[in-house]
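USER:
I wish I could look at a protein chain and see how it folds. I am handing you a single protein, as its sequence and its fold in token form. As I understand it, each token names a local backbone shape. I hope you can help me see how the letters and the tokens relate. The protein I mean follows directly.
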Amino acid sequence: MMTRMRSPEKQLHEDLTQRELEVLICIGNGLTNAEISEKLFIGIKTVKTHVSHVLHKLEVQDRTQAAVYAHQKGLMK
């Protein structure tokens, strides 16, 4: 039986859409949902949806953990 070689582990943030990545960077910069809404020209409900998707995809519980993740992975611009 042949064992398959595993490729290097994929980073969780690689599954984020471009917009979700932008929202993550805003979270990392400490912006509130209202501030993200203004900065990205999207509605507050849309921001909340993106934040929810980001937390789920990064497998974190809250915004603080998402911000720490973004800083640790060098995603901050």
Observations:
- The CA atoms of residues 60 and 73 lie 14 Å apart.
- The two ends are 46 Å apart (CA to CA).
- The chain has a mean pLDDT of 91.
- DSSP finds four helices and no strands in the chain.
